[in-house]
């Protein structure tokens, strides 16, 4: 959506430069990408990569236009904001705007939560957790055998486990195989360390972690310019000491058997070997099994995120 900027009259004539400067050029005021999941039949579309000026009328017009397009696909409900897929980077940051967000974590202007709440209804709240890497902890015994997992092995065959890691915290029903491929490419800009938990040859859980390069990417401004891109490549020789737990889950039938603790201990051991100080984990729904596991390991909630919905009726 675009609009002509508002200009205050300064007393100059109608032909004066202050009145005409920029008045003939429209400015972007709102944008989003609509995600549809027709295979789920839930009647829901998702507002991806949402951006909006601090104006209630602008948001209402954007939602109306989006819902009109969504209704052509049989959708009567909008949920957002979300990221490049509906289950990833869900929610609007609601506090701690002064803190640099970790890698792969939503960030938005401070006005956005209030703006969304003025038009939409809250549907879910999640929290990011900070987990310290404490040395000297012994790994617990468990029924699973842990094997190294690389991003190249995260494909459609692991879609059920990826769904178990994302859907409880994102207001979605499922994660499709092609969405797993998009996610793998999205997080693959930096090498990731992972482990797959198997019992009798069956994959029953997994975990993926990366160095938290948010501060580096901010200094390099995403590497959009060649000199800053070269700087970011040079800086990779000294990985950050803070890490990012990207994804982790245990299959529903294998929970409460210590497999989650096995995987989390493995990630913490890896962080200690890399001289890491801790991990940013989540965001997770506060009443979820993942949040309870993090709290057992001494993690503390930090930034909070709110997800909103808008219905046709």
Topology as H/E string? EHEEEHEEHEEHHEEHHEHEHE
Report the CATH superfamily of the largest domain. Gcn5-related N-acetyltransferase (GNAT)
CATH architecture of the largest domain: 3-Layer(aba) Sandwich
* Helical residues, percent: 25-40%
User: For the residues shown, what is the average pLDDT?
Assistant: 87
Number of domains: 2
What overall form do the CA principal axes indicate?
globular
What is the number of helices?
9
Gyration radius from CA atoms, angstroms: 22 Å
Helix/strand structural class = alpha+beta
Q: How many DSSP-defined strands?
A: 13
CATH class placement of the largest domain: Alpha Beta
Remind me, CATH topology of the largest domain? Aminopeptidase
Unreliable parts: 11-17
Distance between the termini: 23 Å
Strand content: 25-35%
Largest sheet properties: 11 strands, mixed
Highlighted features:
2 domains, 9 helices, 313 residues, two-stranded antiparallel sheet, Aminopeptidase, globular, alpha+beta, 29% strand, 13 strands, 27% helix, 11-stranded mixed β-sheet
Please explain how this structure is put together.
The protein has 313 residues and is an alpha+beta fold. The protein folds into two domains: 124 residues, no CATH class; 173 residues, Gcn5-related N-acetyltransferase (GNAT) (Aminopeptidase), CATH 3.40.630.30. The chain is built from nine helices and 13 strands. The strands form two sheets. Strands 3, 4, 5, 6, 7, 8, 9, 10, 11, 12 and 13 form an eleven-stranded mixed sheet that branches. A two-stranded antiparallel sheet has the order 1-2. Strand 9 and strand 10 form a beta hairpin.
